[in-house]
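worker-03 picked up job from queue 'complexes'. Input manifest follows; two sequence lines, order preserved.
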Amino acid sequence: MKKILMAVALTAVMTSTAFAAGTAHNNTGCGLGTMLWEGKADNSSLFQAFQATTNGTSGAQTFGITSGTSECQQPSSFVQNEKLIHFVQANMDNLAKDIAMGKGESLDTFAELLGVAPAQSAAFNAKLQSNFGKIFTSENIVLAEVIDNAVAVANN
Amino acid sequence: MEPVPCQPVLRGLVMKLPFALLCAFSLLAIVSSPALSQDSYLDALLSKADRMALADDRNWLVLLHYVKTSSGGYRSKIDDPVFFLAADGRTNGKAELAATLRSMFVAGQKDGQHAACRFPARLAWLSEKLDLEASRLPEFSCSERDKSLGQVEAKSAVLVFPVGHINSPASMFGHTLIRIDGSSRSNLISYAANYSADTTDTNGFVYAWKGMTGGYKGFYSIMPYYLKVKEYNDLEHRDMWEYQLSLSQSEVGKMLNHIWELQKVHSSYYFLDENCSYNLLFLIEAAKPELRLTEQTGVFVLPTQTVQIVMNSGIVQDVHYRPSQGTKIRKIVSLLEPGGQASAYRIALAKSRPEAVRSEPITDRQRRLVLDLAAEYLQLRYARKEMAKEDYNRQYLQILGERSRLGTPAEDAYTIEEPSRPETGHGTTMAGLGGGVRRGEGFVELELRPEFHGLLDPDHGYLRGAQIKFFDAALRYRVESEQIQLKTLHILDILSIAPRDLFFKPISWKVNTGFDTEALRNGKDYLIYRLNTGGGLSWISPFGGLVYAFGELDLNAGDKIPAGVTIGPGFSLGELEQLTDWWKMHLYARGRWYRLGDDRYTLKASLAQNFRVTRNHSVNLEYSEEFVNRHPIAEGSLSWNYYF
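worker-03 finished. Artifact:
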């Protein structure tokens, strides 16, 4: 497992691009509970029923192909894999859930962005699941720590 | 055609064909010195384009978003002048084509300034049609464009349809977007192209008014698909349907190039026709202009109709269902006994600790279900702002920590059955012909409903318990008195019956307005104008249907009402059951009292049934008894509905 991840760290650096301005993200958090569109969820009050929802109104002018530099602390092992950083930043809650459940689309994406080979993914998932507490060490965890911890667990 | 010089920019990403072509242009432009005869070459191209009548070519019309005007000319749906290089480019395709060609020959521009950086799809198409030699173009570079388009790695495309969200009128018809997939296995990190109104108004009425009148500007955007999945699936609880399109890699490349041309370009957004779905069709046409999708739309353009148009064009390969978080929660709830549901609820409300499942006399499978449900529901509570972030973070990790001890079952615990697909639903316009007996007098009735779905219509492909009708009109011919009367003309009629359970507590609501022929104080029928609104609660019935109770206010105006206008309270109680796949029943009772400006009450009980014959045919059978100030009125009717 270790070798795989090291190789990937390198490719990640190679394939990442320089980024243009104009980020797709409105969120400022780097940890859990960072909702992108707070308060637009299915809500039970009648008043909310008459509020407009989005149909994609947020960031309508966005051209967010390139991710922009994350304002969060960077992980040590994957300094330049912006795609991974932005994915984890936007999906940390779902990723935590998938890791705890041992499977899921966010976890699959995380593994792919880390470069885990499909044949290794079941082992990778199981390892992360059984070390959940070592990855999500506190409720104030930020994405850099999640990535570093997950890599450390997978390489262990 | 060796794309070597592009590699430093692309940093090892696999080259894609249309993109390689563009890079090759840049390369060739660098190695060849600008020909002195550029002007004459440009003139030759211009006259060739003229001879070939390229400005009338379907592909050019699509790239400019041109549609025919009533006077026989063309006019672009895009009103932003930056999209056009010629002063009259919005209406003069020939001038725009000439201006585009000329701009490609402007030399000495900085990185990203050349017209090819703005209009890659136009250049690629003109080059192909005119056999334009890239070596004769001046030198230019477009590093930002190359980086961005290279990152998308466009390989294939998917039409995505998030279904409607009945409890928010602004999105009740659903939405459509395009996903562009690259080489990654996960499509969460693909890119989503979207057309939407740029608005910050959250007041639904302001939103609706501005939306109808073109008060918003629409923009195309592109962003990671996971942001869209989060928005629709997780936050708004809308299921998504993904239609894989059989477009080739080079066709998808053309589409992406065209999306690039549309960035930061605005056009007026109209909810009912020039909306997200209509404008998205131009993107598919940019890939395959011969499909002529935008020409097939009607007066209104609803997302389901555009899905249907794309289906009919034969380019849909495969359909994938992506259930929302709400659907997942309901699925887990359905797998748990009430006791398990209650423990999940208590854990999410922090009334018991997640570790408590260890001592409960249940199986590990049930423990997993309880904790999974607790985690999902906690996310939902936080999204609804029912708890602070610190509490959410702490509880969430506690639940997940406990869950991670329980492993992963070999089988997938929550395989969610695919509901009937949106495109299997009935057409959105309905014409009905029927007849019946009212107070013993026979009648023939003709109904026409331009849009969209009634409560009694077959639910296949639609949201259960949701009714949205626009301009529903019915004419009645009374056989004995030989009179034609307007029975109904409802401008708007929306009803949302949303069931409540332990985890979801939505309010059901309704609003409708328009003309109705109704019995007044003397028991005789007159035409009145009505505005009716109300709210209520609904639950799942023991038979799997919906039961509901509404309180309402009813305003009537008409010259046969003593004061001209009256308003009164009312109620309705009902049950809606899907008895078989093709048989639906609606039983209800309703009462209304008018004491202000009138002296009238009405009590009505009704049993209505719908029989689905085929996708676009159904039969209604209804019987009702009503008392209006002790005048009894019985009515029975049978009608055939045709949807198109």
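worker-03 released lock.
Confidence is low (pLDDT under 50) at residues 6-27, 36-60 of chain A.
Chain A is about 50% helix and 0% strand.
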